[in-house]
Prior knowledge:
Elements: E1 2-8, E2 11-17, H1 22-29, H2 35-54, H3 60-64, H4 72-87, H5 92-100, H6 111-129, H7 133-140, H8 175-197, H9 204-217, H10 231-252, H11 256-271
Helix pairs in contact: 4-8, 5-6, 5-8, 6-9, 7-10
Amino acid sequence: NFLIVQKEGSRNVSRETKHYNLQAIIAVGFKVNNERAVQFRKWANQIVKDFTIKGWAMDDERLKNSGTKLTKDYFEKLLVKIREIRLSERRFYQKITDIYATSLDYDPSAKATKRFFAAIQNKLHYAIHGKTAAELIVDRANHKNKNMGLTTWEGSPDSKIHKYDVVVAKNYLNEEELNQMQRIVSSYLDMAELQAERHIPMTMEDWEKRLNGFLQLWDKEILNDAGKVSAALAKKHAESEFEKYRIIQDRLYKSDFDKFLELEDDTKKLEE
């Protein structure tokens, strides 16, 4: 171990850091099959390629910035990205994935990324009401209920409900559930912004662990599987219920033209 001094925000922090033999690093890096090893092999292959073609290899960015990529400029740009994510009109779970994409070691093709992206929507839903997105749709989509169980849809409350509205899990959440989800995502963004302000870099693994820890901090249950209902089954159920509800909706729905005719009739009756 060697004592290393590094800057965290405005503080100089000293920590005992493990150092490994270079030959051991190379041997492990080319034998182990995990995300970090894959990143190492990509980096090592690029170094070998540069050395073979040019006769030398150089990390220009690190040389320009005193041996680190984590410069003041890096964190200032990161803060701008996080604040843009907060102001965006993207869905709640998409904002979480956008934060994940700011990871220092972000790789869209990594298994960890695919796992995170596949699970994030269900994790948020499960934390709020104890069901995955698919389970929520199957539980609440019912042609006998008012508005088929939907609390919001495109153009609501005056527009008709369409088939594409009934397969969106968020459309079935009540006001309290929506507020909870909004608060969780907003707090998560606050934490991301604070990390950037303190100049603390975050990796893909860090963000995945922080999300689980963050939900536990809110006393929320953590989803550890894909749930009991598939997305395909939920879609089939919702569309089947919609075909039954469509008949009821067409009978009860009043378009602007229908309302205009009713107003005309009422006006004539008053004149008489």
